[in-house]
Amino acid sequence: MDTTRDLLVALARRYAFADLGALAPSEEIAGVCEFGQRLLSLDAEDFAAEAKAVPAELRRRARACHMPQTAREQPRGALESLRPAYGLLLEVIAIRWHRRELSPMIAAVHIASEYLPLLAYEPHLGHAGDPARWPAGLSAPGSRFGVIGDRECDHTKSEQSATNRTLRVASEPPEGWRAYFDRQHSQVAGALAVCIATCRNPCTAMDWIEPEERADLHVRARTALAFAETPLVRLRHAAPVGHGFGVPSPEEVLDAWERSRSVLDKNEIGSAALEDDGFPLPGLPALFSAVARAPIAPATLLAGVSEHVAGLLLR
Q1: How far apart are CA 161 and CA 10, in angstroms?
Q2: Residues 13 and 115 both lie in one domain
Q3: Residues 115 and 234 grouped into a single domain
Q4: pTM to 2 decimals?
Q5: How far apart are CA 165 and CA 147, in angstroms?
Q6: 201 phi/psi in degrees, rounded to 5
Q7: Which pLDDT tens digit goes with each residue over 11-42?
Q8: At what angle do helices 56-63 and 301-313 cross, to 10 degrees?
Q9: DSSP H or E stretch at residue 57
Q10: Closest of 60, 229, 44 to residue 128, by C-alpha
Q11: Same domain, 10 and 120
Q12: Cα dihedral angle (118, 122, 126, 127), rounded to 10 degrees?
């Protein structure tokens, strides 16, 4: 590098926002780097935090991925649609892969697996699993959804507790709302997938969905559950973000993904993972798109932050 500025620009284009923020020559650049680091770290609680130095368009796109911190907060961000958030997840996964930061990459894959059933439900709900807008049919006569202790229900005890709470959390204060999202919302996502895809004793909880649509959702939700059990997602338990101390190598990640693609290749939705689309984990965007029943491509939000920081440095 010829100059310090060249080095800083290189850091910006490598998405090294934390390092660059510590070295930033101005508060404006430091503020943009903080914004970029929140996105790269998938800190969805703070995506809507004030960032005046960031262009309005980038802030708008970040807010679309933001998780509301109260039951009444507007706009609804990731509770309105998870599609922008999944675009960001794909962008983060690609960046982490190219930076060889494989532990946070697998953590991002794990997050995607936890909420994938809600992506499948979104076309039917008209939102992305907003507890303030659950359909009345979930609690229709004969429904066991959210009934604690019902032995006929296939939900685990923790899923029964989570589904029970999701039906009333919209009336809780902000502290309760945030605690629910920290601990239980992902369990509700899994529970909904069980209802439509694997329940051995179906109740009336899913009767609000037309039979033809229910059959389509069954396949997409079943694929979402299968993805959560693939060798790729299970790598999390061999990484520091899980329960062990090993970090998977690039070869181990690719091998796990190839085995995962074979596991998923059981229906037309899972077979989308076989697509060779040039993504670091080939077919992952196609799989998410098939589950969502809508196109989902890697976002360019972090790329926009990177170029904005580089532009500020080159002024």
Answers
A1: 49
A2: yes
A3: yes
A4: 0.95
A5: 10
A6: -130, 70
A7: 999 999 999 999 999 999 999 999 999 999 99
A8: 150
A9: helix 56-63
A10: 44
A11: yes
A12: 40
